[in-house]
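Side project, low priority. Logging it here so it doesn't get lost.
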Amino acid sequence: MEKEPITIKGLEKLKKELVFLKEKKRPEIIAAIAEARSHGDLKENAEYHAAKEQQSLKEGRIQEIEDTIARANVIDVTKINNDGKVIFGSTVYLQNLDTGKEIYYHIVGKEEADLKQKLIYYKSPIGKGLIGKNKKDLVEITTPSGVKNFEIIDVKYIEIEIS
């Protein structure tokens, strides 16, 4: 069973989602199935089939979360001595050498990744291109949209917010 690195905030978010699914969604779906069953013939009952499909999706997600939590290797980046190296959980400040724009990313686990929030999966092209590099390094990363050139301006080991 391969361990899955995750930040403290990422694990908290997963646990909240699990509680929500088990305590709120599961009973709602069970009630919807019971309601649909009471309407008679199940072969022709679209509500029943929709509720069963919802149940299947939610139960699959519950299993996925429980599996991730069981394999979680929680990394508290704030407890690691910051030597300027890009590691899992670090926040990397970059300058795009092609455009001059500055950008930052938090390097996180699969369950936490959300590009809109600048949370990138450590195994993504950018994540893989940055891990192990150091502050002031010049980095060339091949992304789906082409080759990008960055300079690592700074690397911070801070706790991040995940919404």
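Brief comment: The first strand starts at residue 4 and ends at 7.
Revisit when time allows.
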